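Lay summary. Proteins are chains of building blocks that fold into shapes, and those shapes determine what they do. In this project we predict the shape from the chain. Here is one chain we studied, written as its sequence of building blocks.
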Amino acid sequence: MKRLANRILLTTGWRRAALAMAAGAVTVLGQAPFHAFIFCFVGFPVLVWLLDGAIARPSRSWTATAWPAFATGWWFGFGYHVAGLWWIGNALFVEAREFLWLWPFAVLAIPALLAVFAGVAAVIARMVWSDGLGRIAALALGFGLAEWLRGFVLTGFPWNAVGYAAMPVPVLMQSAAIVGVIGMNALAVLVFSLPAALAQDRRRAVPAALVAMLLIAAHAGFGFWRLADATDATDADPAAPLVRIVQPAVDQSEKWDAARRNAIFDGLIALSLEAGPNGAAPDIVVWPETSVPYLLTETPSAVAAIAEAFGPDQILLAGAVRIGETSGSNGEYTYYNSILALNGDGVIFDAADKKHLVPFGEYLPFKALLERIGMKAIAAADRGYSPADRRRTMALPGGTVVLPSICYEAIFPYEVEAEGEPATVLVNVTNDAWYGDVPGPYQHAHQARIRAVENGLPVIRAANNGVSAIYDAHGRQSAALGYGVSGAIEARMPARLDDTWYRLEGRRTFWAILAVLALAAALGRLIERRRVGGL
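And here is the predicted shape, written in a compact code that computers can read:
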């Protein structure tokens, strides 16, 4: 292995860039739907060895000194994000005449931008680089900070954060209740990178192996311990609300077709009324994001149809477009991507609007400028959406308190904080039909699933097409529908848990992890300098 490490270290030019890109692409296999985290133990050691050789010529310029490390990290990140996000471009084929020219931006420019964070991670790591275990801690520190920044810089897009690869199954998800995915990002890189130390002499390889085994044992052991006394995911309280999720699987090209509107709506009603496994009528029915093909407040006949179909004690949570007040001097209406709560009389008694909109999808940044060249928001037609001014919970009759989450809001760990009563369940509605049967919908579902463990809240996830599921507060699945299936699933709502350590102290824990890694990296650097100085 030492010979391999030396060959990688000495790689130059385009071969170095290609190898870094390939290492990143291989690493993404640790994400859903593959969950082949073994490949992370390949990709990250290669990155370590490449960074060993990322040394600049002597220069007074800091940027020139940092460039080899940044370039190495950038190519790694570019390979990671192209391999993990190539499917985003599929959304542009839905209205190809209008949007297909944006395909290179979606497939290449977005990964190129996200790769900057991996480049920053590599630069941070090289600042405290050493030739021993300290450099492994340095890389974990760099990625911990960079992945945290990726969650909010330029509105944030923490898709496929590295830490998810370390949490493929419920027993390995439980550490998220303590450190969350933001802490797991750093710890995962630490463990995935440790095999790089095996290329060194035994004096350094043995401690690396011991650290790796200790962290892996703690990660898995805590999961087994936490699940040992947990109620089975399918054994919820019989008095808990019965929840039905409707997945209509409407093709995205037909979703806003006026000729298909009535059929789509009738299909939603029919799936809501189907007899369930135990014959009982559901207490809460959930329809996915923008599933209602009308503006409900402007379509009394649709509201009347809901009132006729649903019983007096039933609640419908429907993903729908909501029209707001007129704005500006031209009197234009505002539109919101919303979850509407209706009772059995068809009365809309509450609504929650999406706060974190998708750039270029639901609104157009630099609108005045970009509209001059013919651009518009892809998923919001000409109108665009307006963001909610705040995030709040929705209190339903019977004591259920919903924390609403629309589409990719579920990938942001911090966006579970809301005004109002403490939530008892997180409801995520989405429309992943834009992309087809590709890794994206499965990645999206897995990230929403981790929110359950982090916060001790069950997750009810309704997708137009993709993965609709019910997860308990330990991240275990009690019911699910896969991609391409039109139907409905139902289960008793799992109970929430007490506030997790992560929910109470997650930020402090994250910074404590980074502080320990920074100390270990600095110590490794100090030991190396003393050793070199003593030669």
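What the prediction tells us: The radius of gyration is 25 Å.
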